[in-house]
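Subject: for your reference before the review

Hello V.,

The reviewers asked for a structural picture of the protein, and I figured it would be easier to keep everything in one thread rather than splitting it across files. Below is the amino acid sequence we used in the manuscript, unchanged from the supplementary table.
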Amino acid sequence: MKIILFIVSLTLSSSISAGLRQYAAKVETSDWQLSQQSRLQCTLSHKIPGYGEALFTSMASKQLNMEFELDMLRLPKTFGMASVYSVPPRWMPGHMQHAIADMTIRKQYNGDLPEQAAWTMLSELEKGFWPTIYYQDWYNQSDRIAVGLNASNFAVPYENFAQCVSNLLPYSFDDIAYTILAYQKNSTDLTKYSQRRLNMIGQYLKEDSDMELVLLDGYSDSYGGRDMNKTLSVSRAVEIKNYFSEMGVAPQRIEVTGHGERRHVAPNSNEMSRAKNRRVVIRMAKP
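And here is what came back from the structure prediction:
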């Protein structure tokens, strides 16, 4: 009787194991790469043979951020849910696997996880555990899938990735895409605040000059002659155009318009309000 029970148990165990398809890099071929490295984006990538690629990405922003993406060779056919666990490799006996998060499976989309889960996965990898995603196969209902991230050879690329993240610009494209620069009276000299603002834009353009269109609208107050103010508004915008061109933006993608005294945003009755009219409005668009 015991022999029969053992055989049945062994058969069931083999059946369960056979229904689990596992994807993970081998220890000797586990490869982590800093595939994107700039002050705008840092991406740490890991190839999963036969399955796709795991990606951890942080972007330039006012707030520190992190996202995990599971780039699949075969996109989901249906909606569902995956479970993400931290799994100890076989050379770490005595440790138990534990849950990290649930991942929503969306039809025809890669899997992804938000900031907290992504950071947790990275910390588990740093400790030597393998974050593993489990879900029901959408092409074969008798199979379950296990996608493991091998922690071997992780330490050095992760250190480089962390250094890259710490060097990201503390603002994004959306933070500078619409900017108003203010000027000193009757000149093309920016105020100190606007100089800092322009330097921020310059730092961004050093990393990404791929602008589809930049619109520069120059304005003046009503102090002085109308023709002189028209010329001054153009000069202010042209100086910004030259600055952007030096940063790598193609000149033909920069449009300059001088409006002179037209379209005031404040009265010209006193110096404080006139200062608001001395401005260049920058509008940038990316493909």
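For the response letter, the relevant points are probably these. The first helix runs from residue 2 to 18. The first strand starts at residue 20 and ends at 23.

Happy to draft the paragraph if you're swamped.

O.
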